[in-house]
Amino acid sequence: MKCVSLGHDERVNTINFDSRGKRLVSCSDDSCIKVWDLDSNGEIKLSHSWKAHQGKVIKSIFSDFIFGNVIASCSAHSISIWEESKIFEEDKKIWAFFIFIILFRFLDQ
């Protein structure tokens, strides 16, 4: 077991694997989401990083069964869904909703 720094500037709130166990998504109080790839040697490499919300990102999760390769994330007042292309970017946000958030999840989980 290795200890790995996730490179966030503030507290990390969640870390989740994709369904295949080959990628991680982390989110933090620094407003950022980071996607990490796991190689065959178990090494973790940062593949994507972006500012996802105006405030703290409370949760981020993958869904690649029903919805294709997307990440959903939420802050205290918004949910965003990000479509994966070569890079997750602000212009790849495919849906956003602004409301008080307590909990969210994909139906396939």
TrEMBL record:
One of its GO terms (biological process) is protein transport. SUPFAM superfamilies: WD40 repeat-like (SSF50978). GO terms for molecular function: structural molecule activity. The keyword Protein transport applies. Keywords: Lysosome, Nucleus, Protein transport, Repeat, Transport, WD repeat. It is found in: Lysosome; Nucleus envelope. Belongs to the WD repeat SEC13 family. PANTHER family: NUCLEAR PORE COMPLEX PROTEIN SEC13 / SEH1 FAMILY MEMBER, NUCLEOPORIN SEH1. This is Nucleoporin SEH1 (Trinotate prediction).
